[in-house]
Design brief:
Elements lengths: L1 H22 L10 E2 L14 E2 L3 E4 L12 E4 L6 E11 L5 E11 L7 E8 L5 E6 L8 E6 L7 E11 L6 E12 L1
Antiparallel strand pairs: 1-11, 2-5, 3-4, 4-11, 5-10, 6-9, 6-11, 7-8, 7-10
Length: 184
C-alpha cells in the first residue's frame, strides 16, 4: 500500500510539473512592433518604391526635405497628366499597420484642378482613397495618418500616392516625405 501511495504521489507531482511547465513558457517576441519599410524618407531614391517616370527624388536648401536630405516630388508642369508612387508591405497576422506621411504643396493654382490622392489597399478589404489633397494644402509640411486595422491572417498593404494635374489651371507641386509604416 505504501508503494502505491508513493507511485500515485509521484504521478501527481509529475502531472503538476508538466502542466505548469507548458503554462510557464516565455511568450514569443511580438511581431507587431517597429518600422517595416526600408526607405521611408527616399534617402535611397525610389528603392523599394514603384515610381512613375516623372517622380523626382531630391532635396535642396531652398526647398528642404521634412527630415534627411531627400523627398519625392510630383513636379507641377501645368499639363494634363497623372503620376503614381506606391509601395507594398507585409502586415503580420494580428497586427495593425499605421502609415504616417508628410506632404507639402506649392502652387500658382487659384481653383481646384490638381490633386494628390492617397490610398491604402489591404488584402481582404476594398481599396480606399484616404486623402484627396488639393492646392490649398499649404507650403509647410503637414502630417497625415491612416491605419489598416487588424486581421487574424497575414496581409499585404499597398500605399499609393496618385497626383493628377490639369493643364491651364496653374502649376501645383506635391512633395511627399517620411512615409513611415509602423506595426502595432
Amino acid at each position: 500500500m505504501k508503494g502505491f501511495i508513493t507511485t500515485v504521489s509521484a504521478a501527481a507531482l509529475l502531472l503538476l510539473t508538466t502542466g505548469s511547465a507548458s503554462q510557464g513558457r516565455p511568450a514569443a517576441d511580438a511581431p507587431c512592433a517597429g518600422q517595416i519599410h526600408a526607405n521611408p524618407g527616399f534617402e535611397r531614391g525610389t528603392t523599394d518604391w514603384t515610381a512613375g517616370p516623372r517622380i523626382v527624388v531630391f532635396g535642396d536648401t531652398t526647398r528642404p526635405a521634412h527630415t534627411g536630405r531627400a523627398y519625392a516630388t510630383f513636379a507641377g508642369l501645368d499639363v494634363t497628366r497623372s503620376d503614381l508612387l506606391r509601395t507594398t508591405v507585409t502586415v503580420p497576422a494580428d497586427c495593425d499597420l499605421t502609415v504616417r506621411f508628410w506632404v507639402r504643396t506649392t502652387t500658382t493654382e487659384t481653383s481646384r484642378g490638381d490633386y494628390l490622392n492617397v490610398g491604402l489597399a489591404v488584402t481582404g478589404t476594398p481599396p480606399k482613397t484616404r486623402f484627396s489633397l488639393a492646392f490649398d494644402g499649404g507650403a509647410q509640411w503637414r502630417q497625415y495618418t491612416m491605419s489598416s486595422g487588424t486581421a487574424t491572417t497575414e496581409r499585404t498593404a499597398t500605399v499609393s500616392f496618385l497626383a493628377s494635374e490639369t493643364a491651364g489651371n496653374g502649376v501645383t507641386t506635391f512633395d511627399v516625405d517620411d512615409v513611415t509604416f509602423a506595426l502595432g
